[in-house]
Specification:
- This is DUF2267 domain-containing protein.
- It contains 9 helices and no strands.
- By secondary structure, the chain is an all-alpha fold.
- The protein has one domain: Globin-like (Orthogonal Bundle), CATH 1.10.490.
- Helix 1 crosses helix 7.
- The chain is globular.
Length: 169
């Protein structure tokens, strides 16, 4: 019997079955993770552009940052942490108070009118134009989280905001 017929003899049959690369395994895994994270985020922004009829990924990102910042200000207790835990990594980064609101008051109770006004001001648009954007962002968020988490968030919102959350774009 020849050495190439013996398993584990150190001889290889034909081509190598082991991947050879100069990039360490941990680094390849990190790169794959970043690629998936980026793809998920791009899909989120594309969804926002389509549903919210936003002109660009930058406009979609601005809308997401504004709405998530205001939503974070409205959620109290652990609900913001529960929501964050279900969002993809790049979206988690958006669910924090933006620089503009970081030094502001702690989470507070406010309704639809205040939320629409805050988002309109952040995006420098008319309040009538802000509501469809809020709905689109809420829709995109709900596509990323479980039904149970969506229900939990709805339970924390007053009826007028719950209506925006429950009837996304």
């Amino acid at each position: 019997m020849a050495a190439h017929d013996i398993p584990d003899s150190g001889q290889q049959l034909g081509s190598s079955t082991q991947r050879r690369t100069a990039v360490p395994l941990d680094e390849r895994r990190r790169m794959r993770h970043e690629s998936r994270t980026s793809q998920t985020y791009k899909a989120f922004l594309k969804y926002l552009c389509d549903v919210g009829r936003l002109p660009s990924e930058q406009a979609a990102e601005d809308a997401a940052v504004s709405v998530l910042c205001v939503l974070e200000q409205r959620l109290v207790g652990e609900e913001d942490n529960d929501l964050e835990a279900q969002l993809p990594m790049k979206l988690r980064e958006l669910l924090i108070r933006c620089d503009r609101h970081e030094s502001g008051p702690p989470p507070q109770k406010f309704g639809r009118t205040e939320m629409v006004s805050m988002v309109a001001e952040d995006l420098d648009i008319e309040p009538d134009d802000a509501e469809p954007i809020i709905r689109a962002v809420f829709s995109a968020i709900q596509a990323q989280i479980s039904t149970g988490e969506s229900d939990d968030i709805a339970g924390e919102l007053p009826p007028d905001l719950r209506d925006l959350w429950a009837r996304p774009a």
